[in-house]
Amino acid sequence: MKQMRLLFLVALALLPLAACRRSESLPQTSTPRETVVETAVVHRQQVASQLVLPAHMMANPTEMVHIYPLISGRVLSLRILPGQEVRKGEKIGTLQSSDAAQARSDFEKAKIEADRADLQLARAKELLAHEVMAQRDYDDLQALDAADHSELERARQTLHLLGFNENDTSDVVPIVAPISGVVLDVGTGPGELQRSLDNATAIATIANIDTIWVVGDLYPRDQASVHVGQAAAITVNGYPGLTLHGAIENISDAVDPVSLTLKVRVVLPNPGHRLKPDMYANMTVTGKQREVIVVPATAVIQNGHDVYVFRETAPGKYERRGVTLGSTSADTDEITQGLSDGDRVVTAGAELLRGSEDE
Questions:
Q1: Fold of 65-97+176-208
Q2: 152 Ramachandran zone, left/alpha/beta (phi>0; psi -120 to 50)
Q3: From the CB of residue 345, how many other CB atoms can be counted at a distance below 10 Å?
Q4: What confidence tens digit (pLDDT) does each residue in 210-269 have?
Q5: CA-CA distance, 268 to 280, in Å (whole number)?
Q6: How far is it, in rounded angstroms, from Cα 332 to Cα 311?
Q7: pTM over 0.90, yes/no
């Protein structure tokens, strides 16, 4: 019995050794990493440099009017809304003012003084004819008559400027549109008091937007590539797929102190007023044609300050080649130095080759 127990214990002790020998006898297998790359031959191409400027739209400032009251008073009515089109001379509201009564009183007084001066001059003329009045006295009365008539004309022009005629008796002043255009903004409402001299907010703003300005921001470092008369393509954020074409009409001579950019202006026709002030847009300026090598963006690897591609030297063999980039886009990059016409470069799988280099 003791011998059987001893044999059993020996067998248990030999089992791990047998398992180790068995595992050592099994063959080792490994799966090599497969590197799959795609290549393409690159050639020199004629391309034009393009500069994309952020831009916005605005009305021509010389065709935009902020309406302020000519006299102080209270707004009685306002018949316009933002986006509404108005015509020149159209009545858009009314203003009640005590200054209107003062202007009418000044006119009536000037009229009385002018009539009296006319009567005195007529009498003086008869006295002068009968040599009862000296010529010098007559000249003085003639000058006073001319001054009274000048004052009458000033008072009459004031009435007309306020929108009254000489026979009106109302103290309600009409508010009229000074130009034809679109109402961009309304800054008041019925019941509000308007002051003619120190009013900070305009009653309304009207602009003619039959043409629209597209103003782009040009950084001074890029000004050498932009000039007056150069073609520009305008894309508007509010109209996907729409591209408008124009030419640069002006480049500002001073740098904007806020954006630190020069302002580039393109004027576009605006039929139907589709383009609105303050819309955002992009202005693409196309430069001169030049010859460069263009590669897919996937071929270029940037690692800090290092920019390079993998060039095929033989079937299945590649070398790392440093390059200098020109203009870049989402799909392609321009290579100004580092490659020659006819070189074959890796266009897909470059990251795998980069990984193998790191190993």
A1: OB fold (Dihydrolipoamide Acetyltransferase, E2P) (2.40.50)
A2: alpha
A3: 23
A4: 999 999 999 998 888 899 999 999 999 889 889 999 999 999 999 999 999 999 999 999
A5: 14
A6: 17
A7: no
